[in-house]
Amino acid sequence: MIKVLLLIIPFSAFALGQEQNQAGTAVAGPHIVNSPNALFQARATGSVQLDPCQYMLQQLNQTSRDLMQHEVNTLEQCLYYYLAGESAKKLAKLNIPHAIASIPPNYLSQQPVTINFAQFTLQHFELNEHLKDISIHGYLELSWHDDRLMWNQDTWKKNKLVVHSFHHIWVPLLGSQNPENHLKNGDAFEIRKVETTNQGNVSAKVAFSLRTFCDDTDFENYPNDVYKCCFSFEPQQDREVIQFTSSGLPIFTDPKNFRDYGWGVSGTVPESFDDPSEIAQLGFCLNLKRAHSSLKIELAIPLFITTALFLLPPLFGSVKIQIYLKMFVMGLQFMTLLIFSTRIAPFLSSTASTPKPMRFLEIALVFNLISITTSIIIFCCMQVKRTLPPWGRVTQFANFINGFLGVLNISGVEEYNLDKYDEQVSQNSYQKDWANVFRAAHAVLMGTISAIVIFVYIVYCL
């Protein structure tokens, strides 16, 4: 009996060992014979040498069911490692680690890699009118061709590969410089999504945050001025093999996140500036125009009121009354100029341009002063007692003007309003003729000044 047990125990132990080995194999499943690091050393480059990848390929060929999500992820990893291994195999002599990500396409041929800027989308902007600078945020779409990312669709049953980390393949590193003063402004770029097709066409979305200074030479048209803010891109690495192209699409705004903050935003079409002797650059500009209707009303109403009041004094006839009214209007114009200066001063910064509303007020003040001075001189001339009549033609011309501009000549007003003017007229019959001449001259001069002010108002305020 003991001999029989001694014979059975070895066989049982052997069978138990076989079952444990089989169970261990079943638990472990397919395993990778060569580690992924071997791919980059060009020692294992075929899918046959990767057990999990070979298993996935067999599943694709033997079954017609759709793969589950984890199987799709595994297949994408296998496809990427296969492409990386093939690239490492081709460049094994150069001893470049991770060649598919560390060197650009066409590295051996040194042919240019064309980076196409498909679309710019603006999501947000911040304009500082005090410093005349702007910060913009958004994203852009890039595309280029990389023949190292081509595969057989019949074998892998996939026509698109999502690259979950942009460090896994070569991507262009962009930088930004201000095209005018070439100052670095702390611009930022972030690659968020990279995809490639089986034909080697790679596309990526790049989020950007850019800052630049704006051209404020149009500030004289305030509040209808336009800020022109220009940006440019250039490659930071592999500059000698990169060239830029543009799809010809204008700048878009994100309808979900974009806010205009009272500015009308329009963008130019991005254009590339490729020169064989220079670094590839692509530039575009944003034009921001004020869209504050309340601000326009705030500036337009005071200008209209002061201009209308400036034109009213000649209707009162009496030169003395006109002088008082013009002085009152001058006070209003001066107060309006002070208010506008306080309102606009924070935005003047270092600009040398004077806004048109303020320039119109300056001109209106000057002409109002000229008008007051002229009226005072004519009023003084009317007080001088004369014993000789004016020239005949002058009298006729004055009578014609006074008749034609009867609304500007109220006869008798001066006589009744001036001290002892009636007595002087009764004593000298020629004094009335001289008064009519001075009234006519005053009407012509005031009409000329009023016409100039109206013309200036149309030019600067309309």
UniProtKB/TrEMBL annotation:
GO terms for biological process: chemical synaptic transmission; inorganic cation transmembrane transport; monoatomic ion transmembrane transport; regulation of membrane potential. The chain crosses the membrane at residues 299-316, 328-348, 360-382, 394-413, 440-460. One of its GO terms (molecular function) is transmembrane signaling receptor activity. Residues 1-17 form the signal peptide. One of its GO terms (cellular component) is acetylcholine-gated channel complex. Keywords: Membrane, Signal, Transmembrane, Transmembrane helix. Residues 103-236 form the Neurotransmitter-gated ion-channel ligand-binding domain. SUPFAM superfamilies: Nicotinic receptor ligand binding domain-like (SSF63712). This is Neurotransmitter-gated ion-channel ligand-binding domain-containing protein. It comes from Caenorhabditis elegans.
